Amino acid sequence: MEGLEAVIVAEGQIEAEIIRGKLESKGIVAHLDFESAGRLFGIQIDGLAQVRVLVHKSQASAARKILNTEGPPD
Question: Which of 8, 16, 28, 36 is the most exposed place for a label (fewest CB within 10 A)?
Fold first, then answer.
């Protein structure tokens, strides 16, 4: 995923979708990167449930600022 940078690692698909929605509501396009085996088989050990939230490098600083100000979802 050239040109993209991880701004946060979520502990599951639902949290990642909420974070993506938060960023996209502020005009920052976000992509999710996850290990498909964890999602396919429901495995949540060894980081398989983790989802990296990626944004374009030019928007990474703004995305981090949004997440640091508003925080990740509870």
Answer: 36
